[in-house]
Design brief:
Strand content: 15-25%
Shape: elongated
Number of strands: 18
Length: about 675
């Protein structure tokens, strides 16, 4: 044998130990996506250190009696063999295989010196290998493969210390392989779960859409019927229809909330609110239920909670209605108490405890442990007696978790229960103006609506509702018919169903916008998921009204875009108050009034001079401040005029006078609002 070769005269054992420790640390922290690159990197690192020319990993397949090269590193100038070493038979190397099965290394320091009839030499010599060592890889007592180090350019002898440390390296690769397989299984399971959740969410969204469309007709017609002069018994029956449809809608909403929570898609929208006000509204809402059962409802708010806080009022109310509703439902005699107590308060935030206590049927400790499971009721007798889906507490817990809180329960059978939670809420910089911030018109709405809806029952319902609001209505059964209707006569606003045959609402809206239609188009859809609303906004729809829709909901949705026959224009001041506070409101209104008066005069001069470029610029300038004070309908009219002037370079006297009338009405509304706040 030729002279043995050692890398250098150095403490190789100590250096190799340091390398292995470094590799071990990287193996522990490596993400699944980077594992393959790390294996390749460590093969190179080990090969260079021991001065090998080729380092590789083989995997055994004992069902096929083969082994395959899965990873390989080669030094510069050394040929790669990985492609030629796939599914290599192991039946001709029993000595090699038996050594690995026993956990022994195979070391050939001088391959050329092997007998010519040795099958090992027949495999190694064509690869130009002079020295080789292979270390078995074993997992849970089973042989799964081996790591090999080839020396091609020179002979190499591995001392005992190196061989031990290379065994450690092989086991590290086994551990990494096991971790990779586990991570892969977890990743596959996660993908399967996400796919299942996506299918479930899509199913729930589709189910919601299919249920909301007929439910829209049920709730809408029953609402219209209630205003008719019906016999007492008919009114009573109609009220029961309204109650049943309202209950059905709440079940649908609960199921959708459940899917949002499970998919982690439920988002909170904090706004400035007064808790004392929310509790007054809760008290009013629940009094009818407690009176029917002969109970008493007591709501108390700590006086220290006088400052407004930042809170998602809608979701907070959802939790409270659930808790108080359950307390009333499961209480036959006595009272229900709602308490708001301040636990801690500083200049920035308040920590409060909310407790809902009842004198109802109570629960055992075993029952409490099962409370927050979806669709869970304590037992079937309770389901039969009290009803419900078993979703309320599960959803409430999910909402509170989003608020960094959780429900706690104390209960004694036959004595009652107490549900409580704690919240830390930042103080709001400004107060909210829920009642007097929206100066909505009291009169009938004005204008022509194009109603695009494929369901004939819903078309009839919506037409009746729209006419009740003072609007004239034209109808189209699908998007293609809507295009023809707009070409014949432009409406003041379009209510556009989304899912329709022939041409859907999104496609119709896109084509209308391309053809220059700039007036409001509102989505009318049974889709209520966040992605449904976002999709409407992304397709140039101005708003998204969800089914089932009430008469008041329809009025609210349209009043932002249409004028009314009242003497005032809708004005919402919440944005102003949120930024400057109530104390700065008067100054903002005064500044806007001065700007509006000046701009109206400039617009008159520009129109008289046929300077439509200047008129478009004035519309653009006034539009932003008008939208800021919440006069959305007027801002939209300014936007429409601006775009028309940019495209056509003109406006008819009627069109200009209509805009001036809206601005004059807004001037009166702002003046009235300013007088009220002064």
């Amino acid at each position: 044998m030729q002279q043995e070769h050692h890398p250098n005269q150095r403490d190789t054992g100590s250096e190799l130990t340091d390398i292995l420790l470094s590799i071990a640390e990287r193996f522990i922290n490596v993400p699944l996506a980077e594992a393959e690159l790390l294996i390749a990197d460590t093969l190179e690192q080990m090969g260079r250190f021991v001065d090998a020319d080729r380092v590789y990993i083989f995997s055994y397949d004992f069902e096929q009696n083969t082994c395959s090269n899965t990873h390989e590193w080669c030094a510069e100038g050394i040929s790669a063999e990985i492609e030629q070493l796939q599914n290599v038979s192991i039946v001709h190397i029993p000595q090699w295989l038996n050594a690995h099965l026993k956990g022994e290394q195979m070391l050939y320091p001088d391959v050329p010196a092997l007998p010519d009839n040795d099958p090992i030499k027949a495999i190694l010599a064509p690869q130009g290998i002079k020295s080789i060592i292979t270390i078995p890889m074993r997992h849970q007592g089973k042989l799964i493969g081996f790591v090999g180090f080839d020396s091609v350019r020179r002979f190499h002898h591995y001392d005992q210390q190196e061989r031990k440390l290379l065994t450690v390296f092989a086991q590290m690769l086994v551990n990494l392989k096991e971790r990779m397989e586990t991570m892969q299984l977890l990743d596959t399971a996660k993908q399967a779960a996400e796919s299942a959740a996506q299918v479930k969410a899509q199913f729930l969204a589709n189910m919601s859409h299919e249920l909301r469309t007929p439910l829209n007709a049920i709730t809408g017609f029953s609402e219209l019927m209630q205003a008719l002069d019906l016999p007492a018994q008919a009114k009573s029956f109609n009220q029961k229809i309204q109650q049943a449809s309202s209950h059905l809608l709440s079940v649908i909403n609960d199921i959708l909330d459940l899917s949002k929570i499970e998919a982690n898609k439920l988002e909170l929208k904090p706004e400035p609110v007064r808790l004392s006000r929310l509790m007054l509204e809760l008290d009013d809402m629940m009094q009818l239920q407690v009176q029917r059962k002969g109970l008493s409802l007591q709501v108390s708010v700590d006086p220290a909670l006088h400052q407004p806080v930042m809170l998602d009022a809608l979701r907070f109310n959802q939790v409270m209605i659930n808790l108080v509703g359950n307390a009333i439902k499961f209480t036959q005699y006595g009272r229900v108490t709602v308490e708001f107590r301040v636990l801690e308060k500083d200049s920035d935030a308040v920590t409060l405890e909310v407790a809902v206590t009842d004198t109802g049927i109570g629960m055992s400790e075993d029952s409490i442990a099962q409370l927050f499971h979806a669709f869970h009721q304590l037992d079937t007798s309770i389901t039969r007696q009290f009803g419900g889906t078993g979703l309320g507490l599960f959803i409430s817990q999910g909402l509170l978790n989003k608020m960094q809180s959780a429900l706690k329960v104390q209960s004694t059978p036959s004595e009652g229960s107490c549900f409580s939670f704690q919240l830390r809420l930042p103080f709001a910089a400004t107060i909210e103006l829920t009642d007097n911030a929206s100066l909505a018109p009291a009169g009938q709405l004005q204008g022509q609506v194009l109603l695009v809806e494929d369901d004939s029952t819903n078309r009839l319902l919506l037409r009746k509702m729209l006419e009740r609001l003072g609007l004239s209505v034209r109808e189209a059964e699908h998007g293609k018919a809507a295009l023809a209707a707009v070409a014949l006569q432009e409406p003041d606003i379009i209510l556009m169903d989304i899912q329709m045959p022939v041409m859907d609402g999104l496609t119709a809206t896109k084509l209308l916008r391309q053809q220059g239609f700039r007036k409001p188009i509102l989505a009318l859809s049974a889709g209520v998921m966040p992605e449904d609303i976002e999709r409407s906004r992304n397709h140039q729809l101005d708003d998204h009204l969800t089914k089932p829709i009430t008469l008041q909901g329809l009025r609210d949705g349209l009043s932002r875009w249409l004028a009314s026959d009242s003497q005032s224009t809708p004005l919402a001041l919440g944005n102003v108050v949120a930024l400057v506070g109530e104390e700065g409101l008067a100054e903002v209104l005064q500044d806007y009034l001065v700007s509006l008066t000046k701009t109206m005069a400039e617009m008159q001069q520009a129109y008289c001079a046929s300077d439509f470029v200047a008129l478009a610029s004035l519309c653009h300038r006034l539009k932003s401040s008008t939208r800021f004070i919440g006069a959305e309908a007027v801002a939209m009219a300014l936007d429409v005029m601006e775009k028309q002037l940019q495209c056509e370079q003109s406006a008819t006297p009627d069109e200009y006078e209509a805009l001036q009338a809206k601005l004059l009405s807004l001037n009166n509304t702002v003046s009235e609002a300013l007088a009220n706040y002064n």
